């Protein structure tokens, strides 16, 4: 009888458009970025208004969308950059100044200029692989976002040491800097994906960049400079200026020997982890026969990177 009674009861109908603004915000906060952008915001006007609430836009993180094992060629085309710029400009406007964290790739100066203008509370800026981000927008970020504590400008080859100097001087809370370069030792993984002219624009003046970091970022704790062509002298300068370092990534920095690294980091009392240039280099690459015997060879290249 109970089952029969349930079957005869009218089905409850829920009008999702009638949900309160607060309820919608609570629901949207639990959705993925995809679900928010591709579905929820287009249901009706009330859902769109809830989607645009500033409380939902303190963090804008697209990094998980770039987790493919390899770079995709379509990411480097102008149309894709314009799409990322459009999304970032929208979020910047909706955030009403509350945006604190940005993690994406392939944006440009066009959108970052707006971020600098409207996001004074920005704390994290991760903009890897942005061929059209230059000193112009980064200098604006440096002047307008003093609360910045993490900056990732890896593979952004139009940013120079001048921007690093400004960031260091104007953002005293900066603790994390990632300035990695693409793998120039084995560029085959980028060929056909990253434009050749961009690969060839890889920064070469690492002496100036190291000096800028050393002189303006004394409280830096986490530094990544993968595949940077850093000399022993410049690396020593860097370590002298950044004595609070806890983590250091030197993967691919093949100009540095184990002796160079040990000497420069000997005074870094806070250092907890260091990633050395852990690359396998064939003997033939260095013509080891010129050294006469392997003992002399090993002394010259005292680093875990050269395990022959």
TrEMBL record:
Top-level taxonomic group = Eukaryota
| Signal sequence range | none
Record-annotated F-box/LRR-repeat protein 15-like leucin rich repeat domain positions? 105-169
Alphabetized InterPro entries for the sequence: F-box-like_dom_sf, F-box_dom, FBXL15_LRR, Leu-rich_rpt_Cys-con_subtyp, LRR_dom_sf
Name of the featured protein: F-box domain-containing protein
| SUPFAM superfamilies for this protein | F-box domain, RNI-like
Domain F-box, by residue range, is: 21-56
């Amino acid at each position: 009888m109970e089952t029969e009674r349930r079957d005869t009861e009218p089905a409850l109908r829920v009008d999702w458009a009638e949900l309160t603004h607060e309820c919608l915000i609570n629901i949207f906060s639990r959705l993925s970025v995809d679900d928010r952008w591709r579905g929820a915001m287009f249901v009706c006007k009330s859902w769109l208004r809830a989607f645009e609430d500033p409380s939902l836009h303190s963090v804008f993180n697209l990094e998980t969308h770039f987790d493919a094992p390899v770079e995709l060629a379509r990411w480097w085309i102008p149309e894709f950059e314009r799409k990322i710029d459009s999304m970032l400009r929208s979020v910047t406007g909706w955030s009403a100044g509350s945006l604190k964290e940005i993690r994406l790739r392939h944006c440009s100066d066009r959108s970052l200029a707006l971020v600098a203008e409207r996001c004074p509370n920005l704390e994290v800026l991760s903009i890897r692989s942005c061929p059209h981000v230059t000193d112009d927008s980064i200098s604006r970020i440096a002047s307008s976002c003093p609360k910045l504590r993490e900056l990732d400008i890896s593979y952004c080859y139009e940013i120079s040491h001048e921007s690093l100097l400004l960031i260091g001087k104007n953002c005293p809370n900066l603790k994390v800097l990632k300035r990695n370069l693409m793998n120039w030792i084995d560029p085959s993984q980028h060929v056909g994906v990253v434009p050749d002219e961009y690969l060839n624009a890889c920064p070469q003046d690492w002496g100036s960049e190291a000096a800028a970091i050393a002189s303006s970022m004394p409280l830096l704790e986490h530094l990544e400079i993968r595949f940077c062509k850093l000399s022993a002298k410049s690396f020593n300068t860097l370590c002298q200026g950044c004595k609070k370092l806890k983590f250091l990534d030197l993967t691919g920095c093949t100009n540095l020997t184990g002796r160079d690294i040990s000497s420069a980091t000997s005074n870094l009392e806070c250092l907890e982890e260091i990633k050395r240039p852990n690359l396998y280099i064939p003997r033939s690459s260095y013509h080891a026969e010129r050294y006469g015997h392997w003992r002399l060879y090993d002394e010259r290249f005292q680093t875990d990177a050269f395990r022959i």
